[in-house]
Structure formats: C-alpha cells, structure tokens
Amino acid sequence: MSQTEGSRRRVRLDLGYRGTDFHGWARQPEARTVQGLIEAGLETICGTPVRTVVAGRTDAGVHARRQVVHLDITDAIAARLIGRSARTAGDALAARLRGALRHLGADDIVIHAAAEVDAAFDARFAAVSRRYTYRIADPYSFLDPLAAGHTTVSKEALDAAAMHTAAQEILGLHDFLPFCKPRPESTTIRTLLDCTVTRDDEDIIVIDLRADAFCHHMVRALVGGLMKVGTGAWPATRPAELIARAEEGSTDLGPMFVTPAHGLVMEHVEYPPPREWQARAERTRARRDTEPVAD
C-alpha cells in the first residue's frame, strides 16, 4: 500500500465462514480460498491491494465460526470508506466489504464486525489461545441433516467417557509430534489448555479443544487418536504414551490418524487486554517467527 496517502490505521476484522467450498484460508493461485476472497473484496472497496494477517490458518474444508484478522489502511482510504456517513471507519469497512463479498458470490463468508484498534494488535501473535470443536456422529447419535456438513460420521460406536479420560492425560505443555505434521524450522511443542469429550442432547460427540496454538493437522490428529481410544483399538493411555515417547526423543511413533476436515470448526480466538497486546506479540513472535499457527 502506498505510504503517500497518510498515516496508517490498524483494523481488526471478525468473520466466519463455511469451509466446504474453500481450499483453506491461505491465498493460492487459481484456487478459491477465504483469504483470496477477503483480499479481493478489500481491494475492490479500498482501491488498492490490502494484505491480511490471520489468527489461525485453516485447512481446506475446515469451518470457522469466529476467525480474526488484522489489516492496515491509510487515513485517505478510511475517509473514502466513511464518505458522508456518520459511521466509524471500521463500521464502514465492514458494511462495504459485505457488499463486495456478495458481488463476488461469497455467501459462505460472514463479516461479523470491524473496528479500529491500536497498532500493537496482531491477530496472529497477540492471541492467547485458539479454540476448536470437532463433531462426530456414531450409531448412538441422531444425525441432523442440517448439521451433516460439519459432522463426521463414525460407523463404529465410540466410548466418549474413555475418550475424555485419554484427553485429560495430554493436557499441558508437551511435544505433540505424534499428532502433528511438522513444518521445516517449526516446533511441535504446544500447551493444550483444555480438551473435553462430551455428548450433546442428540448424542453427537463434541470434542472441545483449546491451546495456545495448534500445529498443522494437530486438532484432527488428536481427534483421530481419541477415536482410536473410543473404538477400543487403543487403551486410554496410548495418546499420552506416544507424547512421552516423543519427548524422550523416539521417532517410532506410528502413523497419524487424521480425521476429515469438515467436522472441525474454529470457535474462538482469545486475546489479552489491549495494554498487553505488544508484550504478548513480542513473546510469541520470538518463539514462532517462522511458523504458521494453524490446523
């Protein structure tokens, strides 16, 4: 973006999307992606390319109920977006971006809100945690056809209590290498803050996970491991045992069982109070400057 149009303003953009028809978040040549459409819409309303930074990149087919990005615009662009209205720059950007996305045929993206924030806000590095849920229907479940697009089906009955027991044994700071697809120069050490396995009112199994960040495929591989426990193929101790092996330096960790993408939903991204944004971003960037924060 040209620097001659005035000072820059940082905007936090909150959005959600149905991931079914997307090739993931990240912009790709000749592929329909969430970032590609968001940035196309922003270019339309701003008159210049605008780059976005996302809290967590999602894979093809993964949904997001609440995703967060940040972007920068100049004062001149903000003034054009506001026009003669009494709206804030954030409200004007959100309204115009909704219109641009409708024009682009992106009815599977929802813009929740946009607001100006301090330049210290970083959607990726200032985040404290990310939360995902994964839904599974087994023979005990009622599979609502309206929810089938974000629910994985297991032909085998699953023991949700055993899955929950196994989940409690892997909480905390660990090397999750057995449940990650490592990327070059990245760490597989993460802090799993919460992981619960319950059945809802329709006996759908809901796995709710929250961590400081997730490695590539980590959520779906953890779910795959817990499903192995649920079918009885693995004892409830196996996921923790695999993590212990990784932390001892073993490379004999067996195959990963990565579940289908469509059962996964990014639910929420948590941030500290504004006064802590800069310090949080600096600490996180020092640890993960070369890594994506994603599933």
Automatic annotation (TrEMBL):
The active site is at 59 (nucleophile). Substrate binds at residue 132. One of its GO terms (molecular function) is tRNA pseudouridine(38-40) synthase activity. The keyword Electron transport does not apply. Residues 275-295 are annotated as: Disordered. Residues 166-272 form the Pseudouridine synthase I TruA alpha/beta domain. It is an enzyme of class 5 (isomerase). Keywords: Isomerase, tRNA processing. Residues 277-295 have a biased composition (Basic and acidic residues). It comes from the Bacteria. It holds the Pfam family PseudoU_synth_1. Its EC number is 5.4.99.12. It catalyses: uridine(38/39/40) in tRNA = pseudouridine(38/39/40) in tRNA. Belongs to the tRNA pseudouridine synthase TruA family. NCBIfam families: hisT_truA (TIGR00071). Formation of pseudouridine at positions 38, 39 and 40 in the anticodon stem and loop of transfer RNAs. Homodimer. PANTHER family: PSEUDOURIDYLATE SYNTHASE (PTHR11142), TRNA PSEUDOURIDINE SYNTHASE-LIKE 1 (PTHR11142:SF0). This is tRNA pseudouridine synthase A. It comes from Brevibacterium luteolum. The gene is truA.
